[in-house]
Design brief:
Layout lengths: L1 E7 L2 E5 L2 E6 L2 E7 L6 H12 L12 E4 L5 E4 L6 H21 L8 H16 L5 H12 L7 H9 L4
Antiparallel strand pairs: 1-4, 2-3, 5-6
Helix pairs in contact: 2-3, 3-4
């Protein structure tokens, strides 16, 4: 089971040329389910999504931080391409997973984060979420994760048409 979450200005579902549902500004959540998925898988993902608060920070960018009340906050820039958004979201979820597993005792982009990020990113690559035209570059990125994505890598993610 996999989810892709993207902020949208507008989204709709069209079946047989007829619009069945539509939203204005909000979250578009695509879900992929296979026969092997269980109710526990679904409950775990619902809990993850329900715990996300997705919006811009003061600089208009996405990042992860823990709030004073113990909640976790991931903010997402809404002007990224869908694949860039997904890779950055995986990056930030890796921070959350690392914080939950190791607390504040490890560096933000240390080996624990790199290992978590690589595992999460590869699971999406192996699930064929990404088009083949960019999957190889994402795999190379996953093998040597960095704190920031290069402009070249972002350009590759942005070059893929999602229509």
């Amino acid at each position: 089971m996999r989810l892709v979450i993207q902020r949208v200005q507008r989204a709709s579902v069209t079946i047989g040329g007829h619009e069945k549902a539509a939203i204005g500004q909000g979250l578009l959540i695509l879900i992929g389910i296979e026969e092997a998925d269980t109710r526990d898988d679904a409950d775990w993902l619902v809990g993850k999504v329900a715990g996300l608060r997705i919006f811009d920070d003061a600089d208009g960018v996405m990042n992860y931080r823990q709030c004073g009340n113990g909640e976790h906050l991931i903010t997402i820039n809404d002007n990224l391409s869908p694949y860039t958004t997904l890779v950055v979201l995986i990056h930030e979820i890796a921070h959350l997973e690392t914080r939950l597993r190791y607390g504040k005792s490890v560096p933000a982009h240390g080996k624990e984060w790199k290992q978590t990020y690589t595992i999460l990113l590869k699971s999406f690559i192996y699930s064929n979420i990404f088009p083949k035209s960019i999957a190889e570059n994402i795999m190379l990125h996953a093998m040597k994760p960095r704190a920031t994505m290069s402009k070249e890598f972002i350009g590759i993610l942005n070059s893929c048409n999602t229509d």
